[in-house]
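Checklist before submission:
- one chain only
- standard amino acids only
- sequence pasted in full

Submission:
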Amino acid sequence: MGNLAVIGTQWGDEGKGKIIDLLTPAFDIVARYQGGHNAGHTVYVNSKKFILHLIPSGILHPDKLCIIGNGVVIDPKAFLEEISELKENGINHDENIIISKGAHIILPYHARVESISEELKGDKKIGTTCRGIGPSYIDKVARQGIRAGDLFNPSVLKEKIEENVAEKNIYLAYYKRPLLNAVEIFNRFNSYAQRIKKYIKDVSFILNKEMKAGKTVLFEGAQGVLLDIDHGTYPYVTSSNPTSGGVCTGLGIGPDKIHAILGVAKAYTTRVGGGPFPTEIFDKNGQLLLQKGNEFGATTGRPRRCGWFDAFAVKYACRVNGINKIVLTKPDILDGFEEISICVGYKYKGESLESFPTESWVLDEVQPQYKKIKGWKRPIEKTTDISALPHGFLDYVKMIEDLIQAKVAIISTGIGREDTILVEDEVKDILDLKKIYREINKNL
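Returned file contents:
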């Protein structure tokens, strides 16, 4: 068994949190490599709900090292609040958390700038959480960001804050917004520094050292492939690389350290915020998916847009990431549907497209091509035995596999760890099944 990357294959919200938590017992380390506290990974343990934004989902297991890589942007206040919430719920092993000294810090001006940017876009807004993630990455690329390692040197921190505040205040003044106070920001973040310095280390060095010693790593992605800054539906994307390539740059490891890649796909499709969504459903079926699937953002509470499974998009995600096995989540939400549609391709200006287009202006005009399949009459919610699954659902799975050219290796039939079917022939080569079954049985 080696290292495994878990990647969302849609527009995020595929249920990666549960899957990371489920698979964690088979690994020594869980490492998050991109995104910020705009992510919301929901995990249920013994019917108790945990929502994690920055800290890897492996934190719910006391003996696992949880790493936040240099590809992540961190709001110190949000990080400290998340630790406090975990402790209030009996999770007290924050000594297992490591933050890369190369991770960039989100400051107050980032959220201010993002809010103005979204406001100026009007009806073309991206639909971001306005938590400063994008502007923090902008400063990173512009070589003027503040990194976690800078928190060790107050004079460097002070100088960088003063320079950034001076620049951002010009922007704020132009739009007639309240100006920022560099002294107040420095004092606040210098105070945060005293509390989070103990977590900040050289992640690349530690990870490579641990792997050399035989430790295995579960790489945790946030968001999804279709939100990738390079390979997503630009410009309606996130500001980082949720794709498998982001694992290497976001943690400081070589590509040879990724031994397998597991995609996660919801049995239908959802999207939050603006941007094209070819299979979006506007009738009662869309509302039914919203309500049955409890499709409200874990971070913002916003209702998610709902649509049919888009095999054309997921096939693209599998190609970009090298995925040949996926987890299928929330198929139980389709229980009771008399007929289910699957998007098998797009037509654009009367011509069938050979590959998924990432240009938003093309996606706005494509006509999704559907195949319909009869629903299954016997509910699959909480089913744990593959032999008990209805034939109608197995037909649905087979159609998906054929269309995306990847096998369904795990089926999630509910919110709990135990509500899971492991297709052993598909996962035995990438997972230590004994460790996972042991964890599942604890919850029965």
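Reviewer check: The two ends are 26 Å apart (CA to CA).
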